[in-house]
Each structure stands twice: as structure tokens, then as C-alpha cells.
């Protein structure tokens, strides 16, 4: 099982993971960061600051009991067999019940098109995770393990 | 083991899936008055024609594949808790070992002269939505009584289709439970700008009907103003579907009273979802908690307990709503309408770089976040929700109120069940 | 959703109230996560193999550049840009002086005394004031335009001999200032200089031309054109903008670019344009450093048309959102891009007078020499037109904000006059222990060091409570004035010694020298102190701090302070911490070269401790009892 390991002490705040996420989820070859088409140009992850002002890479945890899925009224959010919580943007109606329910703030309203939520899809269907590939600090890494427990995303 | 679930919506389906996870042998039947499982929260979209029936149909999570029998379009008429059977409208009698009542609610029609008759609807079931959509083909004037969640969302959707929409509300602003005066006024403006005609603080008095076909003509308000009305939609509250349960001796007030395992006062009879009443985490009162996520949560817990597991309700609230009106989003958490004088109110106003204005109204009791209203940018709503329902001590953490990131609480994982 | 705080609570409250406006205070929170590579100076974007960043796993760029090379290269590029900015101001001021002196521009030279004094200092002779003024301008321009191998001539006349000797010995005497900037760009381009020491010495070289030409000579030439500063009482804060007048806010650094506008507004013709539009007249509201300069020289020019300094750089968006400003004229930097949407909403006309400060939604007007009064009239007419167009369409909401008892007009000359002709009384106060030292609180305001003016105010409060006299120039003093520190009543915040001095001399504990250009004036005061004590600058019980430095110009200013041999405190480090060599040189080894040293300390109380310790060591070395 593919898991994401996050060593927050290594984060340099470069936001490469955010940019890589935008690029990986864009159909455009030049995903302009601030403008463009109707496409949601938005990272699914976010570097934030903790109470001491230290960098904290905030990622969807793909919870075992995901509040967002529980709150989803459209059936767009599903926790799949692979353990990843994924939003089907074709089905999502942007009611933002998930936004209201995620205790990490990682179910977020789409900025461009207010009628759809965006969240990390664990790069499901991709060979590797875009954010992990782009991290120059190795703050993010990917581990493949037999372990079904202990979640999809592990903070160390 | 025979499991019978009455009600095929959020709580019922969640319970069924959970039972199947725990017990893959037992016989599992869902009795539903609906044709299939669909999203009740999107009925206003169907009513306005913005969404097709297929669009709001929800996946059954492969119910048939995992051996769950879905009895569609059946109504339960009686329950015999001694014999452990339920009787249906087609005279079938089903035996159960464990029963879940997840029958939800029905529209409350206010005691208004002329209210009963053709072209008067609620908006609770798919049939209601389809009827309103059908009426749009010939009717021009739609009047909605009640500017709660259903009324406001329906008004906002209907007005987009070009019909005349009137919204009647007893209170001074729409969504009186969810919004404070300022955001309420902003919401009024959004609706009014879109063309909805608003009548607030002015209750309906009588619905005048045409003698020849009994169709509505005009709704007369207390102020004696007459509003042209072809279709009247009542969205002024709901009544829990407790009839057969009450007759069978199950304790119910507005809803069926359940304990923290979703068990009623009768052995092996559980209840969950909008029909159930349980202590609301936010205000400590036993009340209906009629929102989708809570119904799913209760359904899951009921399911686990029915299948012999143990789970209990830890967090339970109906006082949360995410709404979108004409493209503006807002989320209301906790008792905005019932704030206490000793609470401290914090208001934060910002305009972001895109020029979009956001308002946050937060109430604390000095220690705990009691309620939050986010207008515009709702990104952080989940963090406030978590703070409210866990009653986390945030005294001295003023920054949290201002809008702190999840990380700032220094939490990396948390358990929600 | 969080909003950055301000030390100026009245201003902060106004921002809270104006949640309908997006300002830097909101955007600062959106940008709270900083890229560590940029912060440490270890990102290099010089070639297509990059951008390269230094990490533990990749300690060198593709070309082989080390962290030290990347940091020093990036730092020198920034210092060069900062120097270029100030030199641009010096150059345009000298050309204006030349144009007036030769009779092309129909404007007065408001201080003949300044011409004579400066000519004497520079050894320039002439038969008339105008001839001398013209020659001064020529001398400045000649130095600026020299090739790099030709040393500038005025350096040895503007700096004290001990410094000149030190600079010559260290090999940092600047050649033609523009050529030095030019070669700094060359040096820091792809696969050129990789020597951090050589690059840092070049920074000091640029610091000298920044300080002596960009700052000091610009002030002295502006004194000639606009008149000498005189100590007086003035108003600051948003309240200076009266809705009864047509208000033109000015932003930038070149006082003399407004010589024409001020002359026009001093005339009946200028005011009549405003009166005809239905206002009581036309007034100038100060914003950023050029406003500080106008405040400084208000007694000599624009006394009745300049109403006061509204605030420093980060107050401008809110100022425009009050609705009281009809027009903003920018001629140089510190005008935030963020004012553009607000100006659009409030129908405030944006004008630029120099294309280096052209904003996308501003109208660029050609400031042609000789046409200054014509341009000024055109501006007045436009402002009046804007007034007519907008006033009934917008709401004006000016908060009660600021102080009306701010002591302004302090310069190296007016301070001497106050002290009775020489610095001895000040020296005596230090010698007898009444004053425990002197600190320059200089430079910008930013939002990053605790919030808007937060560290500036906190450090100043600490220093004055320890009887250390504070001299302030730049946006620091704009912020301090709006927090009451430049008012006489601020003496209550001073220690007993400084308080007594304030009472005796009738001064506040923070002396307001005006714009950041006046850092050059404070450094003249420092040089004069060194002369009077017959010591070199590093021996003086004087420290400087740029607690909230913002930009590249501040880095060039800082390099001047270091070249002068002063101890310089910064709350936030410049982007150098990725390089052990550069960090060590600036914080430790430089003291052996020029005597200068950088102290980085975010906590204002600890910073004050460290600065006081430096002062005490210097006092002890001078044999003055501590």
C-alpha cells in the first residue's frame, strides 16, 4: 500500500508541492497559477504555519473514518478500496458540507468554480505522487508497505 | 439474524452498509417508500429542473451485490415489538431480530386557511420536487412559505428559471436560525437582487383558491397584501415520521428518543437520522438533529450496534448548515440564532485580493467556541466545527478565532468516531 | 482572514472597521508561508539549468556555485538595485538643480545660503549663486557618470578623512557610481564572479556612493531648491486630509520634482483652480518619504499648502480608502500596487511623473525641464476635474488619527542651531552620563517584524527609556510620529536623563529627520560628532538600527552604515543565512575591515540590550564612565 510520509521538520516552505499539485491536476500544459480557464487552478495541499510559526505541510489524511465522505450529500466523495478518499468532480455539486466537516480544513472550496470542492486524490491513478516528486527537501516521501493500518498519510 | 431497516435514505443506507461490514451472513432488508436512494439535499435542484432525477440518485454502494434486499415504494403501517414484526401497506408482514427506524420527516403544512388542495406542495421527497418541476410548465407565480434552508435554496433556484418567486417569512430576515441580522440582510439582498420578492415579518393569513378548479390564486398576508400565487410551497418546518412507532409504544417527543447507541426504549429497536431525537452536543438539549452528516453518523452507529458491535454517539449536532445563495457561500455552526447575552461576539471582516468580502461572526463563552457564521470564504469552517463540537478550550487562543490553520492546533491526527 | 497588526492602534482600528478594503495587512497573511530558499538566499535563477537551490542533498548548483557564491551574488544584485534607486534620485535632483541654475526651469533656488555652504564644502567657486549651484550639479553629475576606474571626486570632501583613508586601504573607494552599479550587475551574472569577499567589498563600495550621493547630496541639493529645514511643530496622521479641499497625495522620494507644483499651489492662480471647482483650495497630503521631506522643509516651501504627513508606506491603501484623496502623484518608489483597485473604487486619479514609478492604471505625465509650472497647472486642473467628478459619488470617512504636536524639521543644520552652533552640548550630555548614547532608528516599515511598525516602536521605546537619544529618518519616523513618539509629550516615555534633556531643549526623545534620504543627514551628524571628538566613527557611542527594513534600497543604506563603521541592528536577516561565509563576514569579520557590524535580533528588548552593550563598550573605550 502506497503511503505518504511527511517529516515536517524538513519543510522549507518552497511550495513546490503546491505547484506540482496544481500542474498534476491541470489539463492545461501551462497552468497559470492565478488565472486562466474555468478549470480549478488550485493546489490540494497547503503549507501553513503552526502556533510557533514553524512550517507545517498540511495534507489530506485520507482518514479511516472520513468526515467529508460522511457529510457528502451528492455521493461525489468516496473512500475507495485503496484507502484514498477521492472526489468525483463530475458529481460534486459544491454544497461544501465536506468543507464544514473536515477537521483539518483540507476539504476546500474550489476557487475558480464555486460549485465544486477540491481535495487531495492521493495521485490516485498516477505512478507516483506529484507533491512527493517535487519536494526538494525530502520532507515528503512515499513508502510502499504491506501495512493496511496506520492511515494513508503519516506525519513523523 | 434478520435485520430490517425502515427508511432508505442517509441513515438507513449507512446502517445497512455498516451492518454488512460487521455481519456478512444476516438477512438484511430495507423498506423504503422511495423508488431508490437519492440525495434529499438536492431536491431544490430537481424542482427547478437544474438537476435530473439521475443526477440526484445516489449509488447504493452495491447494496444488491452484498445481499441487501431493497423493498422500494413500500410503507410501514404497523410495528409489533412483542412479536418482532412490521406490517406493510401491501399486507406483507416481516419479522425482524433487529429493527432500525430511519423514517425521516415529512412536510409540516401550517394551519392556514386554504392550504389543502391542489398545487400546494412541500419539498421533502423526490415526488414533491418532480411535482414542482411539472408545475413550472404552466404556473408563473411561486410562493414559498418559510425562508429556512429549504425555502431559501428553492427560491434561489426557482428564480433562475424566470418564474416569479415570493418568499414569506415570519422572522425579519431569511435563514433566521442560521444567520445573524447583518448576514441575514446580506442574504436578503442576494435574493432580492436575483428577483425574489421578500415578505418578512408578515405571516400568511389565507390562501385564496379559484372556485372552479380549486387552484390557488393569491396568498393573503396578515397585512392584507395579496400576492399572486399559482403554486404554494410550504417550507416552514418538518414533522418526524413517528406514527407507527408511537402506536407501538416507542418513546417519542418530536422525534423518537434514542440513547447513545441509537437504541430506543424497546429492545432491539433502533432509530437513527432525522426521525431521532438525541442530545445535541452543541447545546446539551435533547432535540432533532436533522442534517445529512449526522443522519449518516447515527446510521453507522446504529448499524454497528445492531450487528453486535459497540459504538456510541460522541458528537451529535444538527446545528450546522452549509448554504449557497446565488454563488455566495456561507456556513453556520452552532446556535447563531440563540446566542446568549453572556457570550462574547467577535466579528472579523476582510476583503481578499480578489476583492471578495468575507465575514466571520464567532461567539465564545470565554472558554469554548459556541457558534460560528462564515460568510464568503468558508475554507476554515471545518476547523471551527471541530472546535465547537469537541468543546475544546480556546481561551487565550485569540488567534484561533481570527482564522487559524488546522496545523496551528498542533494536531496531526484525530479520531472522529 | 487574519489581519496583520499595527503599532498604531488608531490606524489598526480603522483597518478593522474597513473590512471592505483589501490591503497589504490582509495580503500579508496570505503570504505568511515563506520559501526557505529565497529567505536564505540559496535560490539561483541565473541560467536555464536552474533554478538551482541548495539543499543538504544538492549542496552545489549545476554550474558548481556554492551557497556562498549564490548568497553573495544575490546580495550584491540587491544592493546594486538599491544603490541604483537612490542614485536615480540624486541624478534627477542634480539635473533639476542644473536646469534651475541655468535658467531653463522657471523656479527659484529657495536657499542661497545652502548654495554657498555646499559650494564651500565642495571647493566650488563662482561669481553668482546660480553659477555655483550649476557647478555643484555638474560636479555631482560628473561623478555619477565617471567610468569605474575613475574615482569620484566628491567622496573625500563629503566623508571625514579617517574614513576616506580606511576606504582607500580596503579598496572600496567608488569609481563612477553608475558604472559601479553597472559592473555589479556584470559581476553577478551567469558564470562570472564567484568570490563572496570581492562581492561584499563591492557592496560596501556601492554603499558609499548610495550614502554620499544618493542620500547626502540629494538632501543638500534639495535644501538649495526647496529651502533648509527648520525645527517646528506640525501635524501628522490621516486627520490632516480635510474633505473641504482638493487633496493631492504625493508619494516617492524626490522633493524637487514637486518644486513646480508647490510654487503653483503657493500662487493665487493655483488655489483659484481649486476654488473654481467648488473646494476651498488645493492641498498636498504627504505620503511616504517625499511627504516627510515636504514636512521637513515646510517652513521654506509650501508652508500653507502642505497639510502634513498622513503616514508611512503601509498606510497608503487605507488613506485612499478614506475617500478624501482626489489624486495621488508618484514620482519614485514606495507607492504600493495595492492602491490601484482602491483608487479605481474611490475614483482617485493616479498620476506618475517618472516612468520608473509608472503604475499600470496611472496616467504618465512628462516632467520636462522648463515646463514645471505648466505641468503643475495641468495637474491642478486635473485634480480639480477629478474633484468635481468624484465628490458626489463617494463617501468620505476620515478617521481621527495622528498628532498635531509633532516636532519636525530636524536636520544636521537645524540641530546645530538648536544646540547653539555646535555639537558640544550634546557631547557634554553624553560625557556627563545624562544621555547614555545615541541610536539611529532608520529605514522602512514592514509588516513582517511583529507587524506594522511594531518592532520599530518597541525598540524605540526601549532605547529612550534607557536614556538613549533616538534619531529617526524614513518610514520609521513616519510610524513613530503617528504613534506619538515625535511629540513633546513622548518625553514621559524617556528615562530620567533623556527626559530632562527633552524638557531643557524642548525636543521629543525621538528626533524626526524626515525621509529615508535623511539617513544621510544623521550620518553627517555622526561624522560631525567624530570630528568634534577627534575620533573615527566606529569609536562613537552611536549605533544604528533598521528594525523593519523592507527593500533593496534599505540594503544599500545598510551597506553605507557598515562602510561608515557603524553597528547596524536588523530585526530580520537579509537573505544571507544560507551562506556561512557571508554571514560570518557581515556579523563578525567586517568589524576588522571598516569597523561595521550587523546584529540580527528579532526581540526588541534583547536588541536594545545588545545595542546598549555596544554603546557601553565604545563609551568605555573612549574613557567615558559607564
Which structural traits does this protein have?
heterotrimer, B: alpha/beta, FAD/NAD(P)-binding domain, Enolase-like, domain 1, 5-stranded parallel β-sheet, 29% strand, C: 626 residues, alpha/beta, Substrate Binding Domain Of Dnak, Chain:A, Domain 2, Rossmann fold, 16 strands
Give a brief rundown of this model.
Chain A contains four helices and nine strands. Chain A is of the alpha+beta class and about 160 residues long. The interface between B and C is medium-sized, with 17 and 12 residues.
Oligomer: heterotrimer
* Morphology of chain A: globular
Which regions of chain A are unreliable across 5 or more consecutive residues at pLDDT < 50?
none
Helix content range of chain B: 10-25%
Tell me the fraction of residues in β-strands of chain B, as a range. Answer: 25-35%
Number of helices of chain A: 4
Q: Largest inter-chain interface?
A: A-B, 36 and 46 residues
Could you tell me the mean pLDDT of chain A? 86
CATH superfamily caption of the largest domain in chain B: FAD/NAD(P)-binding domain
Number of spatially distinct domains of chain B: 3
Description of the molecule:
The complex is a heterotrimer of chains A (156), B (417) and C (626). Chain A is α+β, with helices and mostly antiparallel strands and 156 residues long. Chain A has 4 helices and 9 strands; from the N terminus they run E-H-E-E-H-E-E-H-E-E-H-E-E. The two termini of chain A are 18 Å apart. The mean pLDDT of chain A is 86. Chain B has 417 residues and is an alpha/beta fold. Chain B has a 5-stranded parallel β-sheet with strand order 3-2-1-7-19, with helices on one face. In chain B, strands 9-16-10-11-12 form a 5-stranded parallel β-sheet, with helices on one face. A 5-stranded antiparallel β-sheet of chain B has the order 22-23-26-25-24, sandwiched between helices. Chain C is an alpha/beta fold and 626 residues long. Chain C has 3 domains: 69-226, Substrate Binding Domain Of Dnak, Chain:A, Domain 2, CATH 1.20.1270; 237-390, Rossmann fold; 406-621, Rossmann fold (3-Layer(aba) Sandwich). Chain C has 25 helices and 16 strands. In chain C, a hairpin with a 7-residue loop joins strand 1 and strand 2 (52-53). In chain C, helix 10 (196-226) crosses helix 22, helix 11 (259-266) crosses helix 12 and helix 11 packs across helix 16. Chain C is globular, with a radius of gyration of 23 Å. The chains are: A alpha+beta (156), B alpha/beta (417), C alpha/beta (626). At the B-C interface, strand 24, strand 25 and helix 10 of B face helix 2 of C.
Amino acid at each position: 500500500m502506497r503511503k505518504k510520509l511527511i517529516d515536517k521538520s524538513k519543510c522549507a516552505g518552497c511550495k513546490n508541492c503546491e505547484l506540482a499539485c496544481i500542474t498534476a491536476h491541470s489539463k492545461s500544459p501551462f497552468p497559470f497559477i492565478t488565472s486562466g480557464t474555468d478549470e480549478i487552478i488550485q493546489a490540494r495541499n497547503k503549507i501553513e504555519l503552526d502556533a510557533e510559526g514553524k512550517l507545517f505541510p498540511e495534507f489530506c489524511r485520507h482518514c479511516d473514518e472520513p468526515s467529508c465522505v460522511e457529510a457528502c450529500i451528492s455521493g461525489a466523495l468516496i473512500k475507495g478500496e485503496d484507502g484514498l478518499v477521492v472526489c468525483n468532480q463530475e458529481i460534486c455539486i459544491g454544497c461544501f458540507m465536506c468543507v464544514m466537516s473536515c477537521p483539518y480544513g483540507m476539504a476546500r472550496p474550489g476557487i475558480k468554480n464555486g460549485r465544486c470542492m477540491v481535495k487531495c486524490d492521493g495521485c490516485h491513478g498516477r505512478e507516483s505522487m506529484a507533491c512527493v516528486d517535487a519536494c526538494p527537501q525530502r520532507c515528503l516521501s512515499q513508502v510502499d508497505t504491506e501495512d493496511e493500518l496506520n492511515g494513508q498519510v503519516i506525519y513523523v | 439474524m434478520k435485520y430490517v431497516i425502515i427508511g432508505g435514505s442517509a441513515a438507513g443506507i449507512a446502517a445497512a452498509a455498516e451492518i454488512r461490514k460487521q455481519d456478512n451472513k444476516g438477512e438484511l432488508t430495507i423498506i423504503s417508500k422511495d423508488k431508490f436512494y437519492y440525495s434529499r439535499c438536492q431536491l431544490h435542484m430537481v424542482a427547478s429542473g437544474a438537476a435530473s432525477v439521475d443526477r440526484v440518485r445516489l449509488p447504493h454502494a452495491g447494496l444488491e451485490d452484498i445481499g441487501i434486499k431493497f423493498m422500494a415504494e413500500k410503507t410501514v403501517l404497523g410495528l409489533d415489538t412483542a412479536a418482532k414484526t412490521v406490517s406493510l401497506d401491501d399486507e406483507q408482514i416481516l419479522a425482524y431480530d433487529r429493527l432500525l427506524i430511519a423514517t425521516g420527516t415529512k412536510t409540516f403544512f401550517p394551519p392556514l386557511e386554504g392550504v389543502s388542495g391542489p398545487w400546494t406542495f412541500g419539498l421533502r421527497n423526490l415526488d414533491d420536487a418532480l411535482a414542482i418541476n411539472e408545475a413550472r410548465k404552466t404556473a408563473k407565480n411561486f410562493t414559498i412559505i418559510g425562508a429556512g434552508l429549504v425555502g431559501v435554496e428553492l427560491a434561489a433556484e426557482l428564480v433562475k428559471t424566470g418564474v416569479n418567486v415570493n418568499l414569506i417569512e415570519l422572522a425579519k430576515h431569511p435563514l433566521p436560525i442560521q444567520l445573524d441580522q447583518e448576514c441575514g440582510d446580506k442574504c436578503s439582498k442576494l435574493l432580492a437582487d436575483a428577483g425574489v420578492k421578500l415578505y418578512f415579518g408578515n405571516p400568511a393569513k389565507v390562501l385564496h383558491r379559484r372556485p372552479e378548479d380549486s387552484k390557488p390564486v393569491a396568498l393573503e398576508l396578515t397585512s392584507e397584501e395579496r400576492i399572486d400565487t399559482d403554486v404554494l410551497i410550504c417550507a416552514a418546518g418538518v414533522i418526524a415520521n413517528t406514527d407507527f412507532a408511537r402506536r407501538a409504544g416507542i418513546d417519542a417527543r418530536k422525534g423518537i428518543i434514542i440513547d447513545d447507541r441509537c437504541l430506543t426504549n424497546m429492545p432491539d429497536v433502533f432509530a437513527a437520522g432525522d426521525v431521532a431525537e438525541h442530545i445535541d452536543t452543541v447545546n446539551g438539549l435533547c432535540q432533532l438533529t436533522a442534517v445529512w452528516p449526522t443522519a449518516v453518523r447515527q446510521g453507522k452507529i446504529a448499524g454497528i450496534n445492531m450487528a453486535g458491535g459497540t459504538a456510541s454517539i460522541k458528537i451529535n449536532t444538527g446545528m450546522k448548515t452549509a448554504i449557497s445563495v446565488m454563488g455566495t457561500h456561507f456556513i453556520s455552526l452552532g446556535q447563531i440564532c440563540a446566542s446568549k447575552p453572556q457570550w462574547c461576539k467577535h466579528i472579523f471582516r476582510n476583503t481578499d485580493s480578489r476583492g471578495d468580502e468575507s465575514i466571520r461572526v464567532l461567539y465564545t463563552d470565554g472558554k469554548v467556541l459556541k457558534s460560528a457564521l462564515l460568510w464568503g470564504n468558508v475554507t476554515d469552517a471545518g476547523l471551527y466545527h471541530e472546535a465547537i463540537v469537541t468543546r475544546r478550550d480556546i481561551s487565550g487562543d485569540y488567534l484561533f478565532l481570527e482564522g487559524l490553520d488546522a496545523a496551528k492546533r498542533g494536531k496531526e491526527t484525530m479520531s472522529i468516531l | 482572514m487574519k489581519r496583520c497588526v499595527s503599532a498604531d492602534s488608531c490606524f489598526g482600528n480603522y483597518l478593522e472597521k474597513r473590512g471592505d478594503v483589501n490591503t497589504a495587512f490582509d495580503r500579508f497573511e496570505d503570504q505568511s508561508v515563506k520559501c526557505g530558499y529565497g529567505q536564505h538566499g540559496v535560490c539561483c535563477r541565473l541560467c536555464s539549468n536552474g533554478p538551482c537551490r541548495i539543499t543538504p542533498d544538492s549542496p552545489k548548483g549545476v554550474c558548481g556555485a556554492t551557497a556562498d557564491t549564490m548568497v553573495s551574488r544575490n546580495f550584491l544584485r540587491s544592493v546594486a538595485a538599491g544603490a541604483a534607486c537612490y542614485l536615480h534620485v540624486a541624478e534627477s535632483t542634480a539635473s533639476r538643480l542644473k536646469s534651475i541654475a541655468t535658467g531653463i526651469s522657471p523656479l527659484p533656488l529657495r536657499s542661497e545660503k545652502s548654495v554657498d555652504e555646499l559650494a564651500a564644502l565642495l571647493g566650488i567657486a563662482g561669481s553668482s549663486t546660480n553659477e555655483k549651484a550649476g557647478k555643484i550639479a555638474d560636479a555631482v553629475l560628473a561623478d555619477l557618470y565617471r567610468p569605474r576606474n575613475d574615482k569620484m571626486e566628491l567622496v573625500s570632501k563629503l566623508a571625514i578623512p579617517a574614513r576616506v583613508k580606511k576606504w582607500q586601504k580596503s579598496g572600496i573607494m567608488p569609481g563612477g557610481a553608475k558604472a559601479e552599479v553597472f559592473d555589479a550587475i556584470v559581476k553577478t551574472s551567469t558564470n562570472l564572479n564567484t568570490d563572496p569577499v570581492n562581492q561584499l567589498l563591492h557592496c560596501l563600495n556601492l554603499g558609499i556612493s548610495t550614502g554620499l550621493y544618493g542620500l547626502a547630496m540629494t538632501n543638500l541639493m534639495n535644501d538649495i531648491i526647496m529651502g533648509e529645514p527648520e525645527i517646528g511643530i506640525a501635524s501628522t496622521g490621516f486627520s490632516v486630509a480635510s474633505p473641504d479641499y482638493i487633496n493631492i497625495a504625493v508619494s516617492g522620494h524626490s522633493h524637487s520634482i514637486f518644486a513646480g507644483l508647490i510654487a503653483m499651489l503657493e500662487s493665487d492662480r493655483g488655489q483659484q483652480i481649486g476654488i473654481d471647482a467648488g473646494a476651498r483650495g488645493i492641498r498636498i497630503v504627504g505620503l511616504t518619504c517625499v511627504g516627510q521631506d515636504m514636512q521637513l522643509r515646510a517652513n521654506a516651501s509650501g508652508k500653507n499648502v502642505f497639510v502634513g504627513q498622513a503616514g508611512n508606506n503601509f498606510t497608503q491603501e487605507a488613506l485612499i480608502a478614506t475617500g478624501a484623496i482626489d489624486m495621488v502623484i508618484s514620482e519614485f518608489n514606495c507607492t504600493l500596487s495595492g492602491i490601484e483597485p482602491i483608487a479605481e473604487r474611490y475614483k482617485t486619479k493616479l498620476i506618475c511623473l517618472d516612468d520608473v514609478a509608472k503604475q499600470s492604471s496611472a496616467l504618465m505625465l512628462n516632467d520636462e525641464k522648463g515646463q514645471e509650472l505648466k505641468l503643475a497647472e495641468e495637474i491642478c486642473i486635473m485634480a480639480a476635474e477629478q474633484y468635481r467628478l468624484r465628490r458626489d459619488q463617494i463617501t468620505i470617512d476620515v478617521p481621527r488619527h495622528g498628532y498635531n504636536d509633532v516636532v519636525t524639521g530636524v536636520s544636521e543644520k537645524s540641530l546645530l542651531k538648536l544646540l547653539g552652533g555646535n555639537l558640544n552640548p550634546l557631547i557634554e550630555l553624553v560625557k556627563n552620563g545624562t544621555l547614555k548614547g545615541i541610536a539611529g532608528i532608520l529605514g522602512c516599515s514592514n509588516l513582517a517584524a511583529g507587524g506594522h511598525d511594531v518592532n520599530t516602536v518597541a525598540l524605540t521605546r526601549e532605547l529612550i527609556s534607557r536614556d538613549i537619544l533616538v534619531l529617526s529618518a524614513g518610514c520609521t519616523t513616519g510610524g513613530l510620529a503617528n504613534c506619538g513618539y515625535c511629540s513633546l509629550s513622548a518625553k514621559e516615555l524617556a528615562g530620567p536623563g533623556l527626559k530632562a534633556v527633552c524638557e531643557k531643549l524642548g525636543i521629543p526623545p525621538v528626533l524626526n529627520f524626515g525621509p529615508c534620504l535623511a539617513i544621510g543627514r544623521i550620518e553627517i551628524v555622526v561624522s560631525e560628532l567624530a570630528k568634534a571628538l577627534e575620533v573615527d566613527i566606529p569609536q562613537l557611542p552611536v549605533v544604528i538600527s533598521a528594525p523593519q527594513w523592507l527593500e533593496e534600497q534599505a540594503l544599500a543604506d545598510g551597506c553605507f552604515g557598515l562602510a561608515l563603521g557603524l553597528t547596524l541592528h536588523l530585526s530580520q536577516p537579509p537573505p544571507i543565512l544560507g551562506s556561512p561565509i557571508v554571514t560570518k563576514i557581515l556579523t563578525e569579520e567586517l568589524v576588522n575591515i571598516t569597523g561595521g557590524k550587523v546584529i540580527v535580533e528579532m526581540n526588541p528588548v534583547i536588541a536594545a540590550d545588545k545595542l546598549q552593550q555596544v554603546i557601553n563598550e565604545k563609551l568605555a573605550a573612549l574613557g567615558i564612565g559607564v
